[in-house]
Amino acid sequence: MNMKTKTEEFEVCIPDLAGTGIAERVMVKIPLEWDEEVKQWLIGAEANQIIEDTKARHMGLLLPAQLKELRERYDYTQKEMGELFQVGEKSWTRWESGKHRPSRSINLLVRALYEGEISIDYLLKRAGKPQREAFRVPGSKNFAGWLAEAFASSLATTNWAESTALIYCLSADQGKSSLVEGFARMAFQSKHQGMLLETRETTRCLFPSKAGHRFEHENINISSQTIA
Amino acid sequence: MAQQEIPAQWRNDVCAILASGDKSLIHWDPLGRKRYEATPGCHWTYEAQDAFGYFLSQPCPTGCHVLTMETPGETYDFFFQFKGQKFYGKILLRTDRRRIIIFSAHPPLKEKLFCEMDDEEEKK
């Protein structure tokens, strides 16, 4: 059955930092649903989601999809994320499903991890959990060589999320020359040049931290030519 | 007429819908939603819905059966607490008793509930 809908403008009120006043008003278009039984237009789940996602974005809160993306970056379960931020599985699940929203204060911490401003190892340490040894470069190895080896092996298993997380974790502490060298070696060692080029195109997404900034603004070009 | 206890069957049905987590079962009246949005401190709809659930699951909450509405279903209005403030709420339980429409969740615009008003003029 086709539902009759119309679009209407709605004023979203963005709360101030104290949460007791309104800092800003933003107009959005929302769908209203016609209800034949009650003979009136109603606001349903889709419209409420548009209103609340707009508010969340303006408040700087991560959206449910971004929370899920963050969890998948580390291949964690919702329970593990709840433990990492010490909020419990239920809270994390509610945030990720959009049923509830994180507070501004906890969001600061979650966003810091999302943007690479803090390391997951730091949070693991604070939560009394073992650090992610798999992502540490063995002291005896050269970074670029190790990166090439690890990333190529990761790509071979087509675990793209893991590869992304690997590069992301490693790049935070490494200079650009070793990173570029690592990419170049990877190209020779793996059969995934296409994926590497895709990496270059999406560096802003993959490297939300300083490393991403370097790629975007310091003209580091990893193209098929330079790799070859 | 004074406020009366909101019937347990109505409360149970409404609380079950609120607790279900199924957003498709809950609709908002556009004017009621705008009023909620414009109230400082009212950030997310789930906060109001959680407060409704809490109020309606208390022993013997009181309110008024709203009889003037032409919409099919059963409507009650009541005062409830929201973040330490007195709020006015009005909810319609639809005829299938599986969906609700929230008409109001905001600070009271009038001092009395529907059934406490004496004349027709006041009820409008």
Textual characterization of the structure:
The complex is a heterodimer of chains A (228) and B (124). With 228 residues, chain A is an alpha+beta fold. In chain A, 54% of the residues lie in helices and 13% in strands. Chain A is built from 13 helices and three strands. Chain B has 124 residues and is an alpha+beta fold. Chain B has helices at residues 8-20, 30-38, 45-56, 120-123; strands at 4-5, 26-28, 62-66, 74-82, 85-93, 100-106. In chain B, helix 1 packs antiparallel against helix 3. Chain A binds chain B through residues 8, 10-13, 15, 19-22, 32-33, 35, 37-45, 48-49, 51-52, 55, 97, 99-101, and chain B through 21, 23-24, 26-30, 33-34, 37-38, 40-41, 43-46, 71-73, 92, 94-95, 101.
Proportion of strand residues of chain B: 25-35%
Number of strands of chain A: 3
What is the number of E strands of chain B? 6
Overall radius of gyration of chain B: 14 Å
* Overall pLDDT score of chain B: 91
Look at the helices and sheets of chain A and give the structural class: alpha+beta
**What structural category arises from helix and sheet content of chain B?**
alpha+beta
